[in-house]
């Protein structure tokens, strides 16, 4: 049993001892390892949701077929749950949630489904709602205890707020745009009729315990205030409020607002900051394997508790190995297929697979990557409970650390060190020609043939089907 600190001490000691004699040769052989090398099994996902197979919990020499019942469709979506990479270990809490498992609320005019800490127990700092409004439909005027950040998925809505000091902000947002309302600010949301279908958006709250069931609603409040108090408050007869509904409506149909925002304004906008942000008009930064757009309070001033990155990853590309120093991350998949492994310290790691509409939650400091495992461009959002976007790139850390120090740990050669990027790459391309897979109906027979002659630590899954490639 070696502890990491002992290993580190040994590594540093051996470097120090070797230094005087090997200072002229920067590619001196690394010191002998004190533990066996890590497995060279590439640990590819063994299938994807398009694979024409019945998935089995078998990887290499481990596992066995399923004799009992099987939810084949869920297993197709989750290859790294049923047959995890051998690098997974320990007891890492679940960090995946599909909105498809959320309990939806249906209304005339739309729907809303949420995810919070009750669904994903580790998601203590961010909760979310996916909401749909038909053209003209209104999300009842409301406010809540947490701040709200939103990303438009489709269509156009008009949003507005009145701040505690009586300033006004009203604006329209479309696909890929954002809004942010600080905690407790009243706000109004209505779908425009720019597209006849109305709109759909993602709402992010800066607390894991937020629930759509506990928002403060205009009608719901007034239905619970004595009528004579309402009359005194507004200096009208009680009969003026004869037709308020007896409870909140949450979502309800209405006529669409006038097309131009300016025609809907009671007074011109006069807040010192904007509460919407046209992210769709920002060009993504190109990276080796995709693009990224970062949006935080340095450009979207109002958004002091939430920041985000909108990322695309091309086929076979990967969002590089990294972590976020103190910020919890809530991830949302917009299109494509992906897998994420989180590293939770103490040898603990867990891998999950994601499709469009799925959520991941990555606690602060957990190392992770996001790999495009599909055959289309992967698009996703990284959303943080922080006004500032920050990440630590593993490649950059290694590239900017004295090479001998890095070699003492990883026993890599100079050519490999030279590949570490001093600039943050964010999204990296495919490292080498990826293996070719056959589309297969007989995963089991291939697995058994492949594994008969190989031990559990050989790269024997290299030629297994992944569900795409040759037909
Ligand atoms: C991606 O995979 C799906 C399912 O196997 C297939 O129908 C589609 O043609 C593939 N697309 C490309 C671009 O290869
Ligand atoms: C939206 O606009 C279209 C075209 O102008 C119209 O046919 C439709 O009735 C409108 N929908 C609503 C809900 O007003
Ligand atoms: C706020 O929005 C207005 C209207 O879109 C725009 O002209 C202005 O530049 C924005 N201000 C900031 C600080 O982004
Ligand atoms: C964004 O990219 C488009 C197309 O390349 C270009 O026309 C436009 O000027 C760019 N916008 C900004 C703000 O850089
Ligand atoms: C991605 O990898 C697959 C096999 O794993 C290969 O068939 C395909 O050509 C690669 N695509 C790109 C765009 O690199």
From TrEMBL:
Record-listed Mn(2+) 2 binding positions: 322, 324, 329, 368
A biological process term (GO) from this entry: oxalate metabolic process
GO molecular function, one term: metal ion binding
Signal peptide: 1-18
Entry-linked SMART domains: Cupin_1
The keyword Magnesium appears for this protein: no
Residues the record marks as active site: 382 (proton donor)
UniProt remark on cofactor binding: Binds 2 manganese ions per subunit.
Keyword Cell inner membrane: no
UniProt xrefs under InterPro entries: Bicupin_oxalate_deCO2ase/Oxase, Cupin_1, GPI/OXD, RmlC-like_jellyroll, RmlC_Cupin_sf
Segments for region (Disordered): 21-41, 431-471
Compositionally biased region (Polar residues): 438-448
CDD domains for the chain: cupin_OxDC_C, cupin_OxDC_N
Occurrences of domain Cupin type-1 (ranges): 99-242, 277-418
Record's keyword terms, sorted: Manganese, Metal-binding, Signal
Reported cofactor(s): Mn(2+)
Residues reported to bind Mn(2+) 1: 142, 144, 148, 187
Protein name stated in the entry: Cupin type-1 domain-containing protein
């Amino acid at each position: 049993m070696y502890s990491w600190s002992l290993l580190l001490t040994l590594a540093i000691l051996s470097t120090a001892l070797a230094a005087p004699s090997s200072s002229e040769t920067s590619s001196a052989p690394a010191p002998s390892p004190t533990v066996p090398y890590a497995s060279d099994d590439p640990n590819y996902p063994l299938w994807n949701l398009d694979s024409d197979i019945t998935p089995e919990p078998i990887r290499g020499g481990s596992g066995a077929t399923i004799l009992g019942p099987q939810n084949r469709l869920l297993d197709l979506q989750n290859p790294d749950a049923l047959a995890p990479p051998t690098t997974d270990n320990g007891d890492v809490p679940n960090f995946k949630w599909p909105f498809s498992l959320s309990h939806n609320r249906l209304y005339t005019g739309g729907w809303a489904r949420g995810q919070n800490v009750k669904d994903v127990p580790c998601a203590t700092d961010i909760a979310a709602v996916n909401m749909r409004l038909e053209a003209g439909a209104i999300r009842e005027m409301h406010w809540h205890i947490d701040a709200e950040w939103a990303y438009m998925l489709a269509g156009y809505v008009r949003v507005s707020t009145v701040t505690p000091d009586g300033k006004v902000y009203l604006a329209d947002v479309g696909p890929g745009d954002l809004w942010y309302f600080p905690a407790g600010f009243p706000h109004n949301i209505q779908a425009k009729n720019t597209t006849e279908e109305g709109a759909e958006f993602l709402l992010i709250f800066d607390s894991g315990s937020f629930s759509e069931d506990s928002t403060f609603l205009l009608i719901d409040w007034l239905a619970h205030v004595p009528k004579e108090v309402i009359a005194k408050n507004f200096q009208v007869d009680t009969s003026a409020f004869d037709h308020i509904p007896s409870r909140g409506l949450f979502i309800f149909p209405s006529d669409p607002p006038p097309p131009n925002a300016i025609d809907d304004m009671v007074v011109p906008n006069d807040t010192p900051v904007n509460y919407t942000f046209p992210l769709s008009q920002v060009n993504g930064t190109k990276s080796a394997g995709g693009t990224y757009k970062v949006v935080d309070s340095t450009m979207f001033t109002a958004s002091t508790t939430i920041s985000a990155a909108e990322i695309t990853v091309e086929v076979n590309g990967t969002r590089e190995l990294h972590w976020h120093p103190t910020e919890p991350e809530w991830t949302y998949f917009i299109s494509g297929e992906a897998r994420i492994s989180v590293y939770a310290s103490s040898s603990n790691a867990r891998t999950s697979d994601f499709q469009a509409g799925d959520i991941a939650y990555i606690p602060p400091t957990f190392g992770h990557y996001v790999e495009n495992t599909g055959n289309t461009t992967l698009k996703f959002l990284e959303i943080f409970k922080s006004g500032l976007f920050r990440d630590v790139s593993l490649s950059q850390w290694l590239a900017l650390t004295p090479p001998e120090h890095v070699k003492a740990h990883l026993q890599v050669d100079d050519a490999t060190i030279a590949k570490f990027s001093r600039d943050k790459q964010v999204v990296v391309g495919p490292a080498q020609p990826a293996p070719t897979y056959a589309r297969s109906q007989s995963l089991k027979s291939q697995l058994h043939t492949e594994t008969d002659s190989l031990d559990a630590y050989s790269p024997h899954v290299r030629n297994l089907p992944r569900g795409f490639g040759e037909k």
